[in-house]
Amino acid sequence: MHIRRYIRLAALCVGISLFAGCAHNITISPDAASMTPEKKPDQIDAAVGLVVTNAMRTQEAVTPGGGGDKVAYKPYHDLEFPVYLALSQTFKNVVKLDEAPNEAAARAKGLTYIITPEIATSSSSSSLLTWPPTDFSVTLTCTVSDPSGKIIAKPQVTGSGHAEFDEFKHNFGLSADRATIEAVKKLPGAIEQALGTSTAQNGTGAQQAAH
Question: 7, 103, 130, 146: least CB-packed within 10 angstroms?
Fold first, then answer.
C-alpha cells in the first residue's frame, strides 16, 4: 500500500511540474493603424525586397510568462506584416520574397535593396497567478544588402511593451503587441539614418546602388 501511494504521489508531482512549466500560445497582432508614425517620413525612391522564408515563418520562440509558465509564438510569421508596413512607409515599393534572390533575379525585379529581418524577443511577468507576460521586448535588426549581396547597413530598433492583468483579459499578447508597435514605428527613421550614413561614407546613393 505504501509503495502504491508513493507511486501515485510521485506521478502527481510530475504532472504538476509539467503543467506549471507549460507553454501557452499567443499571437502578436497589433492593429495596423497603431503602427503608423505620427510624422510620416518622406519615402525613399527605391524598390526593396523583404525576405522572409517559409522556414523563418515556422520558427517558434518560447519565452517566460507568469506563474512559472512560458509563452510560445512565431515571431517571423506574426511580425512579417508589421515589418512590411514599416518598409512601405520608408520606400516607394516593397516586394515580399520567400527566398533571397540572386543578383540577376534582384535586378530583373528592379530591386535596389534586399532586406532580411532578424527578430529577437524576450518576455517576463511579475505575476505568480497568471501566465500572460506583462512585459515584452522586440528587437528588429534589418540587414540591408545591394543586389550583389553586399551588406550596406544593419539598422536595429527595440520596442518594449507592458500590460496589466485587467488589460489583457481578452488579448493575452497585449504586451507583445505594444512592444512591436514601438519597434516598427522606430524602423523607418532607423533605416533612413543608416542608409544616409552608409551612402555618405561610400559616396553612393540609392539610385547608384541599383546599377
Answer: 7
Q: What is the pTM of this model?
A: 0.83
Grid coordinates of 15: 504532472
Given a contact cutoff of 8 angstroms between Cβ atoms, the answer to whether 176 and 132 are in contact is no
Selection from 72, 58, 41 nearest residue 189 by Cα: 41
Beta strands in the chain (DSSP E): 23-25, 44-51, 61-64, 70-73, 91-97, 113-124, 135-145, 151-153, 156-162
Rounded to 5°, the CA angle 106-109-110 comes to 90
Bridging pattern class, strands 44-51 and 113-124? parallel
- pLDDT-derived band at 119 (thresholds 50, 70, 90) equals very high
